[in-house]
Fold peptidyl-tRNA hydrolase.
Amino acid sequence: MTAPTRDIVQYYVVNSELGMSPGKIAAQVAHAATTMTLHCLLNDKSSHATFQAWLNAGQKKIVLRGTEAELLRLSESGYLSIRDAGHTEIPSGSLTVVVLPPADKEEIRSVVGGFKLM
Amino acid sequence: MTAPTRDIVQYYVVNSELGMSPGKIAAQVAHAATTMTLHCLLNDKSSHATFQAWLNAGQKKIVLRGTEAELLRLSESGYLSIRDAGHTEIPSGSLTVVVLPPADKEEIRSVVGGFKLM
């Protein structure tokens, strides 16, 4: 009997109210990816096993969209959020993306279940 | 007299011929961000100073677009490239993004000068 395969996913929620271009969205999501990778490697030792299992399985990422208020709520719950420096397109300090750490899909269904795909 | 400020940038070149959605593009660029971060931290010790300076200055990212042939040329030159697992939207193995390591803008102008913003 083999162990059940874990379905580990990293979710991003993009602020759909800012009217960002596809390139801008990609850059903001990539900021979140870089920052979360550094966090998982350097700060959050407790998550190493899940992070490594997620990498080994192809680092599955799903990009969702939400309102400013929804992102703010996630951010205030302690999820890592990205605020833009405001060099292009949008005002400085805009909340652009919230990113969740890689986690078992079933465990975070309650957090991201209400969001639509980007 | 102060030292001149370095303008360190990380460029991404997205394959514009695949017709990917904004969410798919963001996920692919984020794969590149995660993979490059791991590479800079764990493998390429020679780039640590530049990587750290780039992080400290706000991890500036610029997303460009290119043709399949242009991405292939960059990939064959040794730049890190992302091929999609093909779960959604596009065929498995599609070359989606090429990412350059964070570098001084002037130094990589010759590599990315011909590409347009995404």
